[in-house]
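Late entry, fe (ii) ion complex.
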Amino acid sequence: MTENIYYKKLDWKILPKNIHDELFILAHSSENIRPTNRRGRDNYHHYLLPSSIEQWCRSNLPIDHRYVCRLQRFFDTDHIPKHIDQSRTATFNYLLSETGPITNWFIEDQLIESIIIPQHQWYYVNVSITHSVNHIDQERIALCVFMPHDSEYPTSSSIKI
Ligand SMILES: [Fe+2]
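Prediction complete; structure with ligand written out below:
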């Protein structure tokens, strides 16, 4: 039987300071915000990356053209309720905001695993199993790289801003 992996620290390249700072500014601006399927919620934004940062990701991370790169920000909420992501089975996350939020996984409502993901490190996160995030004290900003189920999922280069 294969054991589920819920998360895993990766040795992917950390973001240069200038990119980190640029993403932080972007996460607090209204530029490049994309519509999401989380309609009716005003505590979540996700953003296309500026092309220079997108290019950095594609040159420095072990990803191919099937992956998309997004910046996401949760704010004005202290938790993300239990859910399973519909568009992907896994995401590779790089937390830009301060560490603190706790990611939890559940099987049949039983808490199975938890982690406080550290800042400024890449983590594989399994989002195909029921999960939640709590203790979001202020905001949670992360760069997310993932392979969407839908091959038609728009990539940055195919979207006209
Ligand atoms: Fe999720």
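Confidence is low (pLDDT under 50) at residues 157-161. Will revisit in the morning.
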